[in-house]
Amino acid sequence: MAIATHLVFGCYGFWLPNDPRGSWSRYVGSRRLLRFGPATWTPTRESLATQRHDVDSRLTAKKSLKYPVVTLSGIQARAVAKGIAAAVGESMYILHACSIMRDHVHMVVRRHNHSARRIIGHFKGRATQKLTQEGIHPLAEFSGPPTPWARGGWFVHLDDENDVLAAIEYVSRNPLEAGLPSQKWSFVKSILD
Prior knowledge:
Elements: E1 4-10, H1 31-34, H2 55-63, H3 74-91, E2 95-100, E3 104-110, H4 116-133, E4 154-158, H5 161-177
Antiparallel strand pairs: 1-3, 1-4, 2-3
C-alpha cells in the first residue's frame, strides 16, 4: 500500500497530449493541436522529460494553442505557494517536498484519504484563487480568465520509505537543475518530523 505520492501538475501548455516524447493522454481534444499528430500515450509512469525529440516541432505546436503558454514569474510562484499553503491548512495534507517551477509543480504528499486527482485539483484551485486575488493571474487579459493549469496531472504512488526519500531528493533537486534557487516552503515538513 502506498505511503506517499509524487504529484506533478503543469501550467497551461506545459506538456501537450501529442508531445513527441510521449504523454499520458489518449486523445487530442484540440483541432489546433491535432494537426501536429495524435496523442502519444505511453503506459510508463517514469518521467519522459529527458527523451530525445524534435524540439522545434514541440515548440511550434505550443504556439498553436488558444492561449499563450503559461510561465510563472517569481511573484506568481510565491502566490502559487500561498495557495498550496491554504490547501494544506484546509485538508491537513503532509507535504515532504515541493518545487514550484516556471511551468509545473512537483510535490511529495504523505498518504491522505483524498485521491491524488482530488489533491491536485485542490492545490490548483487554491493557487488560482491566490493568483487572482493578488491580481497576477497569468491569463487575466482573457475573458474568464481561463485556468492557468493544464488539465489533470501526473502522479505515482510510493510504496516504501526509500521510494519516498528518492522522490523527495528528486523534487528538491528540480529547481537547482533548472537554474533556480533552492526552495524552502513553510508548509513542507521533514520526513523526520
